[in-house]
From TrEMBL:
Name by which UniProt lists this protein: JmjC domain-containing protein
Keyword Transferase attributed: no
Organism for this UniProt entry: Cupriavidus metallidurans (strain ATCC 43123 / DSM 2839 / NBRC 102507 / CH34) (Ralstonia metallidurans)
Record-level Gene Ontology MF annotations: 2-oxoglutarate-dependent dioxygenase activity; metal ion binding
Listed Gene3D superfamilies: 50S ribosomal protein L16 arginine hydroxylase, Chain A, Domain 2, Cupin
InterPro entries hit by this protein: JmjC_dom, NO66-like, ROXA-like_wH
Length: 375
């Protein structure tokens, strides 16, 4: 199935099983590497177990001796944001970039022992569940009754009646739209990658937008200054909110203005903000000339954790908005779409004003890297 047929007929509408979506799949991380990630405090990890008929949820970091034995069944270790730390996982995620980056969230990889899983549940977002090693039995249901068992540490459906079921082998993949009930149980040890999406909630966006708008001072001088009440008369009802205060604030709020371009600028800034756990690796300061030489020789790539977006007028990187002239915008858009510029593309950028300075600044922040040598 082509990405366009998938987006037209399936995406956000109905589940789809794709046998051998990734033939001869190589797990992006080994079990050992996944366990090492789960031991880091800048990585979000969870341990879900179902021992003696009880669900238990623990949060990482976990050292290997803190995990149950691999011979014990019914537990599962879930590591969020593997794409932020590992190039192979980032490359796996990039295969799903037929969906815009603004909708892509992260790659979560789970390791489970026999019988392990997180129980029957539903998620609020679209997900591709790609089997990377071993086997997992998936059961799914279109049920609309989505009540949860109360007082459990994780979301488990109180009634789950499966309508379809399959055993997924390495390379097989199951797509599920939001709110679709599912339960995946490991058959022997296995690893599953969840390519997850995000869809901003309007109410949450509105709060962030108003905060952003009030800081865009240049366009909203109406908000400059403070309430002043020279000439206010003495009061005998001191607890009463002054009517003048409410009137003045209402007037200033009414002067707040925005247009579609500002909404787009806000979205680019907000949606390119790195996740709170992300720490970019600081690199040893190198002079601009040396950086330029390396970039011309090897090309540049965005760091796996960098988020780059653009709209008609702006380029956004990790929560910063830039308004580049057209000659620069062309290269920045290419960098955002491909996440890299080849050596010859960098060569074409060298003559452009300020671009190498900007790349150098981003490199020092850890946002942009010299491309790794191809082997
Ligand atoms: C898992 O990998 O065990 C859980 C994925 C999911 O059901 O969302
Ligand atoms: Co799920």
């Amino acid at each position: 199935m082509t990405p366009s047929a998938f987006m037209r007929d399936i995406w956000h509408r109905k589940p789809l099983l794709i046998r051998q979506a990734v033939p001869e799949i190589v797990p992006p991380v080994s079990r050992e590497a996944l366990f090492e990630l789960a031991d880091r405090d800048d990585v979000e990890s969870r341990l879900v177990s179902f021992f003696r008929n009880r669900w238990k949820l623990e949060h990482g970091p976990f050292s290997e001796d803190n995990l149950p034995s691999r011979k014990t069944g019914k537990w599962s270790l879930l590591v969020q944001g593997v794409n932020l730390h590992d190039r192979a996982a980032a490359e796996l995620m990039s295969q799903f970039r037929f969906v815009p980056d603004a909708r892509l969230d992260d790659v979560m990889i789970s390791y489970a022992t026999d019988g392990g899983g997180v129980g029957p549940h539903f998620d609020s977002y679209d997900v591709f569940l790609l089997q990377v090693s071993g086997r997992r039995r998936w059961r799914i249901s279109s049920q609309t009754k989505l009540d949860l068992i109360p007082d459990l540490p994780l979301k488990i459906l109180s009634d789950f009646s499966a309508e379809q079921e399959w055993v997924l082998e390495p390379g097989d993949m199951l797509y599920l739209p939001p709110q679709y009930a599912h339960d995946g149980v490991a058959e022997g040890e296995c690893m599953t990658a969840s390519i997850g999406f995000r869809a901003p909630a309007y109410r949450e966006l509105a709060g962030h937008f108003l905060a952003w708008l009030s800081e865009t001072v240049a366009d909203n001088e109406g908000l400059d200054g403070r309430y002043a009440d020279a000439g206010e008369s003495a009061t005998s009802t001191p607890a009463q909110l002054p009517a003048n205060l409410a009137r003045a604030v209402a007037e200033r709020l009414q002067s707040l203005k925005w247009n579609a371009g500002m909404v787009s600028e806000f979205l680019g800034t907000h949606l390119s903000e790195p996740k709170p756990s992300v720490q970019f690796d600081e690199i040893e300061e190198i002079p601009l000339r040396q950086f330029t030489k390396l970039a011309r020789t090897h090309g540049v790539v965005l760091a796996p954790a960098s988020v780059a977006l653009y709209d008609r007028t702006h380029f956004f990187l990790n929560g910063e908005a830039y308004e580049p002239p057209a000659s620069l915008a062309k290269w920045l858009r290419r960098l955002a779409d491909r996440r890299q510029l080849t050596a010859s593309e960098v060569e074409a950028c060298v003559a452009l004003p300020d671009l190498m300075d900007t790349f150098h600044d981003w490199a020092m922040e850890g946002w942009l890297q010299i491309a790794p040598k191809r082997v």
